[in-house]
Amino acid sequence: MQITTPFIKLDSFLKGENAVSSGGEAKIVIAEGAVSVNGEVETRRGRKLYPGDRVTYGRSNFTVEAA
């Protein structure tokens, strides 16, 4: 996903990538430890993601890119 701002929050990123269907679902999967950022489990839905960060959820891998 390309972002035009300096960062994007993890829950918003998952919604933007259509990895989850809602903010509530994003909150749950993040709290359950099902999401990794740069290879480490992340449980903070407000985690700021910057260009170059890699997000893994299930079998899907995403990269944050600058627009």
List keywords for this structure.
about 70 residues, alpha+beta, Structural Genomics Hypothetical 15.5 Kd Protein In mrcA-pckA Intergenic Region, Chain A, about 25% helix, globular
Written account of the structure:
There is one protein chain. This protein has 67 residues and is of the alpha+beta class. The chain has a single domain, classed as Structural Genomics Hypothetical 15.5 Kd Protein In mrcA-pckA Intergenic Region, Chain A, CATH 3.10.290. Helices cover 24% and strands 31% of the residues. The chain has a 4-stranded antiparallel sheet, with no helix packed on it. A two-stranded parallel sheet has the order 1-8. It has a two-stranded antiparallel sheet with strand order 2-5. Strand 6 and strand 7 (60-63) form a beta hairpin. Helix 1 packs across helix 2. It is globular, with a radius of gyration of 10 Å.
Topology of helices and strands:
Blueprint (H helix, E strand, L loop, with lengths): L1 E2 L4 E2 H7 L6 H9 L3 E3 L2 E2 L6 E2 L4 E4 L2 E4 L1 E2 L1
Parallel strand pairs: 1-8
Antiparallel strand pairs: 2-5, 3-4, 3-6, 6-7
Helix pairs in contact: 1-2
The computed structural class is: alpha+beta
For the terminal residues, how far apart are their CA atoms? 9 Å
Task: Write the CATH homologous superfamily.
Answer: RNA-binding S4 domain
- Summed up, the domain count is 1
The count of helical stretches stands at 2
CATH architecture name: Roll
Mean pLDDT: 97
Per the CATH scheme, the topology name is Structural Genomics Hypothetical 15.5 Kd Protein In mrcA-pckA Intergenic Region, Chain A
Query: How many beta-strand runs?
Result: 8
